[in-house]
Each structure stands twice: as structure tokens, then as C-alpha cells.
Amino acid sequence: MSPSIPDTASRRVEFISLSHLNPSTELEPVASRGIDLPYFRRYVRTLEEAGYDYTLLPYGSGSADSFVVASAVGQLTERIRPIVAVRPNTAFPLVVAQQLATLDQLTEGRAVVHLISGGNDAEQARQGDYLPKAKRYARTSEFVDLLRRAWTEEQAFSHAGEFYRFDDFGPGFRPYGDTIPISIGGQSDEAFEIGGRQADVFSFWGEPLADIRAQIERVHAIADAAGRPRPRIWVTFRPIVDRTDELAWRKAYEYAEQIGRTFERAAYGKQYLVGKGTPQNVGSQRALEFAARSEVYDRALWTRTAAVTNAGGASTALVGTPETVAAAIVDYIDVGADLVSIRGYDTLADAREYGRTVLPLVRQELAHREATGQRGSLQAEHPGAFAPGFDADALAGVR
Predict the structure, then answer these.
(1) Which whole number is the average pLDDT over 268-276?
(2) CB–CB of 10/337 below 8 Å?
């Protein structure tokens, strides 16, 4: 591998996790009323101590309110930035702007919002949203414009759009700083268009390197054509690590069996949304296509976890030692990712382990690059599936 750093490589990288409210996992689902407060406090404190920069507070019709949980995260931490997941069908944009600005003031500038246009008709209908998917993205576009105007307009303004109408609003309640970062994700044409033209962050699930590279180029081209700054790129993985590659692959196969059984029983989280047919959202369709084509891609990407869950959410794994997984993350940094979300299947233990092992290795590599202008040895010394003769089945003892 060439010691030179690719032109596409990100110089600044930050890490994201997801905050879990109770000990239930895809490996070991447990009945719960929702929030186990001592566990939640311990989890958020672990993320802060482990060195994560952000935590995502997800949204669903049957889950805890993301704004309330984000406010709790803000008060339980000093540094970590809460990312509030918001579906534009659930609240009026001026109210969401007010809520986000309030959170941003309370956390002294740490608030981020991730807008979910909605990829499942049945879930949208649970809260009264019957717009077709293309219209949902158009609504998100109008929503984004109104968020930013609510934060920046100096005088009262009125609006009569396709989805929202009001008279003489403002000036609105301001954020702590100039604005609040807005993240958009998705793999449909509409998601790319709106994300490229309007988002500060565009998010992807973990895909093979060549495909992520092409997707990033697509987002950048749309942003360039719109004459606006390119969005930061957020990529999500579910690492499975152990002391040796052999142990990690053995664990991965065991995990896939356990997770598959959990999903067969619909015993965890929002599995009522997943089903067994073809998913409606393009991201899940792509994940299943990759899984059907191959289980292993590049240095460490593994797709069986997506296959056994019908690609219900972010579900592609990175498998190997902490060094191999860190090297794989750097591969994605090399194609332009600068926000990396890693969350495990053994949620709290994995968050702690990643903070102890994986995050420092990635940061050490980036510090070396900053100091020398060249790659370090991490990627060359830990080839993972790039190694000649690599066989995941053999490593895992599968016959």
C-alpha cells in the first residue's frame, strides 16, 4: 500500500454512537418498560468517557421521545453532542426549530438534528402521515428551509408553501451559535438531491468501499452544482471485535445465529417494521443486494448480519481484531467519511471496548498523517480479508 494519503481522505474525523435506554439487545432481548434510568446514565457516561463525539437519539412511533432523551443526554454530559432524530411529519417546523434552539442553548452549542423523511409507509401511518415517499422528501426540503429561516431571520416573516403555511412568525428563538447542523440520510434519488443541496451532513449505512466512494461523489456533485459546501459524510457500522481475527470471526458467526433467532421471534425493538418481504426503503434493498452477492467485502465488511435482519436498520458489520477494524474504518476515511458511527451488538460492553481499543488506533493513525503527511503502518500491517487466501468460514471453524 502506498504511503501517500489519498486526496479524498478526510483529515478530521469524529465518532458517533447510539444511546440505548435499557440493557435489551438483539443478542439478548429482555422485556422492558422502556427506560432503565441507572443503565441509561451509565451508558451515556460510558460514551463520554470512551471518547465519542456524538450520540444519536433515534425516533420511532413506539419509542421514547428523542427530544426529551437528548435534553437528558445534554445534562448528563459535558462534551458529547446529542443528535436528535426528527421525522418532519410529527411536528411543525417552527416548533422543532424552537425545540432545537432550546436544546442548543442548554448544551452550549452541542445540538445536531437528523431528519428522517420516512422509509416505511406503515410506520408513517401510525402517526397520521399518508404522503407518498417522494412527497415526504419534498416536505423535508421545505422543513429544512424553515428551520434555518427560524434561526436566522431578523424580522417576522410569513410563508405559504406546499406543506406549511403561517403568518408573521418571528424573530424565532436563536441557537447558541449561528446555526445547528442538519443531517439527512437515505439512498433514494430524492434523498440524494435534498441531502446534496441542503444538508450539512449526509449519512450512509456501511457498504463496500467502491460503492460508498461512488455515493459520496454523487452527493458532492449535487452540492457543487448547487454552489454550496459539501456535506460531511457519516457512515455507520456494527463492529464485532476480539483479540484475534479467528476469535472475532467465530464470534461474528455466533452473533448472526443469535440475531437471526431474535428477529425470527420479533423479540427486539422495532422489528414489527422489518417484516420478511422486500423492504420499502432503498438503503435496505441495497444492503440485501450486497448480502446476496457476497458475505465479505474489502478488509472487514460483513453482510450476514444484514441478511438475517432483512436489513432492518444499520446492520452491516466490521469483523476482526481492534487493529483490523480500525484499519477498515481508515479505509472509509480514505474515501471521504469524516463522521464514523460504530455501535455494537453487545451494546454497553462494545461501546466501552471500542473506546478503549478502536478509537485510539484510528486517532493515532490520523495524528501520524497530520505530523508526517504520510500513512502510518496500521492498514499495511492488518490486511484482514485483503490477505491472500483469506477464508472467513475457515477462521470461524465453519464446515
Answers:
(1) 52
(2) yes
Q: What is the pLDDT of residues 286-320, one digit of tens each?
A: 889 988 999 999 999 999 999 998 888 888 999 99
Considering only CA atoms, which of 106, 118, 50 is closest in space to residue 280? 118
- Check residue 123 and give its pLDDT: 64
Cis status of the peptide bond prior to 58, with omega within 30 of 0? no
Dihedral over Cα of 186, 190, 195, 198: its sign = negative
Residue 273: pLDDT over 60? no
Q: How far is CA 383 from CA 228, 250, 319, in A?
A: 37, 18, 12
Helix, strand, or coil here: 306?
helix
Residue 5, domain member (yes or no): no
CATH of the domain at 39: 3.20.20.30
The reported pTM is 0.94
Helix or strand or coil: residue 290? helix
CB 161 within 8 A of CB 142: yes
Looking at the structure of the chain, the number of domains it has is 1
